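seq/struct pair 1
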Amino acid sequence: MEAQARSAEFMDWVTARRRHLHSIPELFFQEHNTSAYVRSQLDLLGISYRYPVAGTGIVATLGSGKPVIALRADMDALPIQEAAQESWSSSRPGVSHACGHDAHMAMLLGAARLLSQRLRHLQGSVVLLFQPAEEAMGGARKMIEDGALQGVEAVAGMHVWPSQPPGVITTRPGTIMAASDRFVMVVRGRGGHGAMPHMSVDPVVAAAAVVLALQTLVSRETSPLDGAVVTVSRFNTGPGASNVIPDQVELQGTIRALTAHTFQRLHARVEEVAAATAAAYRCTCGGVAWSAVPYPPTVNDPGMASLVLDVARALFPGDGAAADAKHVSWAAAAAAAAGVEGGASEGACAVSHHGGSSSSSSSSSSPAGLMVADKAEVSVSGGGWCAPGGVKAQLLDEPSMAAEDFSFYAQELPAVMTFLGIGDPALGTDASLHNPKFTMDERQLPLGSALHAAIALEYLKRNQPDAEEGAHA
């Protein structure tokens, strides 16, 4: 399987699918064309599926019987104007795949292809979850409500991670990503002329005080050993002249926490502090509006996290994977991605990011007979993935304060979220997620596909009924 994933033909195949998906981004629960394309690829691979699930979602199945593991990819894009101008760039103004979900889908399709060629050797079932609405409205929760996890015993997800160098595979047991919610609040006063502020009740000063007061929820009310974030990211006084005090100010922001207890406390205290601080300035601030679907922390099952690290070290021993898990912090990962510790990609294999002749085009098909999409020109020098420092499996020392609705799956079943490094400054793939300049290191697509497939195979192997009976003998 590794040899096939490293081939130039497979690289072309998975890259073509990523580029087509990249060109047709759609927002949450609107992924109709995206879903149709994914289904067309599953049809060509001969993989059966159930649709619709959660509106635009897909639940595909390979193999039969138990054990059963699910692999998940998210499908939605973001309301962000893409900075790049490639032939496969977003065809929809103001919408782009700035969080790598196009890569997630392509890698899962790649895993589907690898596994479909090994159906006779599958010792159970692999379920593929193509999920809508990760970025908002908790598509994972809707998938669960629609029965996507029926019969599933474990679930694995993967996210491309630009703060890690290419080829670095990381995970950790326990909490790996934070809980998240968003808020909107309005501080109301009484407007007036800027020359006579004493005749008004100034909501601008009151709102500024609210912003500052909210910072103490982390700095003075949260243990330094407990991760939490309160960010006020929008301060809107509305249209008007510079010498006019408005009647109200709208504040928007987010809270993050690593535990459910701290998350609940922050919800309550944001409302209390905002109301009390506004009142001290003779203003009001009531009725804070929160997200329709707040995301809980993403908590990895220790056994599943160990399985991922074992698989990565066994699958890529020739790439420099350590015999023991190497610990890495977010600061160290970011520094490495920036080239501080060997993040440069000298002599790396190259993937062309321009049009012209290619080994795959919209008018040709791969040896597997799968049509390559429009805007999917791919030119690969060599085959397989390319990581300057070799593929490495590393154990994270600390969780991320980013959030994921994969957390809903983890509340139901043993689950693991894994990060796949793509950050190469030489290619410009180190721009952060949710950034107009975010772009994918396509050299890692075959690696992600192979890792997905290997995780599934190893889970099935370890959880055979005979193996379980022997373990308890």
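seq/struct pair 2
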Amino acid sequence: MIASGATQSTTEDDRAKPSDAQGEVAVAEHDTLKYHLLGPSLTKAGQDAVDQQKVSEIIYNASKGSKFFNNEESKDKNLTQKIEKILARKRQLERLDLAADLRRADEHIAELELSRDLSQTVVHVDCDAFYAAVEELDRPELKHVPMAVGKGVLTTCNYHARKYGCRSGMASFVAMKLCPQLICLPMNFEKYTKKAQEVREVLALYDECFQSAGMDEAYLNITQYCADHDMNPDDAVSQLRSHVFENAKITISAGVAANARIAKIASNRNKPNGQFRVASDRATIMAFMRDLPTRKVNGVGRVFERELDAIGVKTCGDIYAHRAFLSKLFGEKACHFLMQVYLGLGHTSVRPAEEYERKSVGTESTFRDLSGKQELRAKLRWIAEELEKDLARTQNKGRTLVLKIKLHTYEVLTRQVIPPKAVSTADDLYTYALPMFQKLEREIPGMKLRLMGLRCTHLVSTKKDKDATSGKSGPKTTSKPPRARNAKGNSNTSSA
């Protein structure tokens, strides 16, 4: 320690400077790590009023020294090094004449602008704290206390728990540090699947070609519905939300916009149990995107957010000023994506997920540290059986089988094999996955896992041409939409 007083020598002062600089670097590294530890669900509804700095300190101290912490620290350091290279590259580019790059970027923006379609009304609906809401139907007393679904890792939390900083993807032991009174329930997929179907029955009445985006969210194009029923989009969506509540007894929030990208962002604005509309004119859309933090955009995660922030892109409006650099720093594909984001462009065509060319079908499970030959094989068998169900549902077989594991140290490993035939049954999936798993066991003695998954790629469709024999059947419906009325809830419809 440096003593205070005039007797301190100049040489000692000089020696102190490097350690001060090192200390600043260490503080900066820990700051980025603390932000990284906040996880991918930072933008979830219910987090805006939370003191995230306090939450990050609690997460940091609760997990420090754990295998999870060490793994996240390693990833954060790697990202920091990557960002240093990006910044070095940017400094090189700033010394060059980028007039040609600027011209190409402007031409690209002009081309994209020509694709703008303001004629459609796209809706993104998202069930509010879905798993938690379903559990609360069976146990109404949980509506008034902090609760979450998931034991080792939280899959969702109700809004009372979110006020404490709890969120999906968070380790339960960390969540308990944030909220000691938190009640955690085990997952019940059968119950959630049944409830999701009740919601989808209503969505099909408004757009029979709606696109599911997971169990608890979906996209609809209600342009035709509004025209057929002489309704404006606000009233139609309000009616839809009321209809879902009547049919499924859970609330949904919605975003309404000219395309799917903006609708997705808007659906988070008035959660829970609300809706938000961004008017379908260019000026409103550009203004809406201008001050929007990049992290709010679907497709920008915590890694890309930090990379963009490092070069000065904090909001979607900042993208324009850096347009000449983007392709050289992040590649053509990322540049194209960012230009679309800046302009507030997105797709307007909505169709069932089954109609898109699926590239893979997989399932995985997270659990507490698991070891032991028989226990691990039992888990592998169970995952094979779950994947068989998914392959049957999507009507596919796979030519390539991928095994994924996460060690108790949080290191992720994958292996793949090409079976002699396309596979879809649990027996085949297990048979071809087991040798890969056994090889990993030999390579890692005493292997402990916290995640295991199987995925089929290079898919082969098993669909039969039903149209030729029985014709197309319309969507199954249970009732007609009720008359237009305001949805019950504490959030109002808004327009940007």
